[in-house]
Amino acid sequence: MKPFIYDLTFEQWQQWVIDNGESAFRAGQIFDWLYVKRVDNFEDMSNLSKSLREKLADQFQFVTLHEIARHESKDGTVKFLFELYDKNAIETVIMKHSYGNSVCVTTQVGCRVGCTFCASTLGGLKRDLTSGEIISQVVKAQKLMDVTEERVSSIVIMGIGEPFENYDAMMKFLKVMVHEKGLNIGQRHITVSTSGIVPNIYRFADENTQVNLAISIHAPNDALRSKLMPVNRRFPFADLIEACKYYIEKTGRRLTFEYALMGGVNDQPEHAEELAQVLKEMPLSYVNLIPVNFVAERDFKRTPRDDIFTFQRILERNKVNATIRREHGSDIAAACGQLRAQHMESSAR
């Protein structure tokens, strides 16, 4: 299969045009057509020679993102279910904030991490996405916003899949997103979330990037985290915390801990106290409390509102900063994997 036109970084395009007997400046023109003018066919690249357009068409293809469904929430959230070239499906979400528009992208078809409260893991991992397939989700979102003269102002890599298990493709995606000749998204306006793939937390810390890192922690100790997140059996809680300390020390950047609250499971005052004891040694961090979304295939209950605030107060009393995530698209099944799970079920009938 031909590689996708979005799979190459700017530096790779510079090498490609030279290898194909073209002038180096053509790389900038190609990038401009892809990420500024945002064309979706080779013939529209009108300032390229016919022979160069033919070379591009011969060696590359545009990403197939066939829109299966689009759900729009009353709060402005837009959730897409896209079909890929191989008939697999992924999700992409646009979220409206007071400070701009954020796009949540998917990095894998399915997920093998196996978190017991998440719909993304239903059906397991099918395959990794290429960097171009990740990039195309942002391009697609931006083209939708072009109609109203808005732009993508931030990106969260928190959709279906574990980004740190598709590490190389994720890093290529980041290089394209932040490039000044491309979409030019500021590094500090991008956040990547991991369930705790410890070796790649160290690797990411050494990348010398300004991209934000979020860790899905969801429990204050080894035993409970292993029940909720099987990945903890591969990378135990103590090892994860050491990797987080290394990240903070190496980068000097604040680290986000994501904590999904599940009624009667991990949301009690004793859990908050225990979590505070673990995290108070990391002042450059804060906890993002997430009321768990209902997933039909899972059996977790939502934490009562008052208990959420109690959990937050206990953390803050112990000098651990904590926020409560604002919900987006709760009326359109906007939690990761829900639309895909519904699609998989209907396709199997």
What does it look like?
The protein has 349 residues and is of the alpha/beta class. It contains 12 helices and 12 strands. The protein has a 10-stranded mixed sheet, with helices on both faces. It is elongated. The model has no long low-confidence stretch (mean pLDDT 92). Specifically methylates position 2 of adenine 2503 in 23S rRNA and position 2 of adenine 37 in tRNAs. Its cofactor is [4Fe-4S] cluster.
Task: List the main descriptive attributes of the protein structure presented here.
349 residues, alpha/beta, DNA polymerase, domain 1, TIM Barrel, ten-stranded mixed sheet, two-stranded antiparallel sheet, 12 helices, 19% strand
Principal-axis shape: elongated
Helix proportion: 25-40%
Major sheet strand order: 1-2-3-4-7-8-9-10-11-12
Helix/strand-derived category reads alpha/beta
Q: Count of DSSP E strands? A: 12
Overall number of domains: 2
At the first level of CATH, what is the class of the largest domain? Alpha Beta
CATH fold label of the largest domain: TIM Barrel
Please describe the biggest sheet, giving its number of strands, its sense, and whether it closes into a barrel. Answer: 10 strands, mixed
Measured distance between first and last alpha carbons: 30 Å
Radius of gyration (Å): 21 Å
List low-confidence stretches: none
Number of helices: 12
* Beta-strand proportion: 15-25%
In the CATH hierarchy, the architecture of the largest domain is: Alpha-Beta Barrel
- The SSE order reads HHHEEEEEEHEHEHEHHHEHEHEH
Mean pLDDT, to the nearest integer, reads: 92
Classified in CATH, the superfamily of the largest domain is: Aldolase class I
Protein name: Probable dual-specificity RNA methyltransferase RlmN
Enzyme class: transferase
Binding site for [4Fe-4S] cluster: 111, 115, 118
Subcellular location: Cytoplasm
